[in-house]
Write a structure and sequence with these properties.
With 61 residues, the chain is mainly β. It has no helices and five strands.
Length: 61
């Protein structure tokens, strides 16, 4: 599959919130993550699908 088939739909971002803090997220295209500054977590996007599990999130520095 090509990258375009796994591309993240940025319009989906409007419907997603941080599962821990219930605040908005921002999209980091370079790292393919959704970032919650309030929770200091970055949620991965795998194959175009955001993984919104706190256990799967990366802690921000």
């Amino acid at each position: 599959m090509s990258n375009s088939e796994h591309a993240f739909d940025r319009h989906m971002l409007e419907a997603l919130i941080c599962p821990q803090t219930h605040t908005t997220l921002h999209y980091d295209a370079e790292r393919q993550e959704l970032v919650s500054n309030a929770a200091s977590l970055a949620f991965p996007i795998r194959n175009g699908i955001p993984v919104m599990l706190v256990d799967e999130a990366r802690e921000l520095d």
